[in-house]
Specification:
With about 110 residues, this protein is α+β, with helices and mostly antiparallel strands. It has one domain. The chain is about 35% helix and about 25% strand. It has a 4-stranded antiparallel beta barrel. The protein is globular, with a radius of gyration of 14 Å.
Amino acid sequence: MVKYCGYLVGEDWLLQRSLDLGIEPSETREDEIETILMASRNVRLVTGVYTYTSFRQVKTPNGKVFWCIAFASDDACDSKGLPSSRPPEEKYKKLRDLLKKDGPPRWFQAC
């Protein structure tokens, strides 16, 4: 099973971020996913990590599903070309601070 190294981001946080950006609330699940993608793009752009990250769904060891801004993958066939190891701190510090996370990105199993 593929694993991604990154920071977990909850749907509620991303939906709130989209509202803060002035994006109208979604009426359908399809629209909600698009809103989540727009919010994730914004977060990755303003923190300067967009060009070397990917946005994936992962699950925690207890099976809970989250979105993940991923910096690395253990999948050699990953189409985004993510590296196989965690990046240096200067590459993730702004994102970590915006998301109010402690420590470096962690590894999570893909859904």
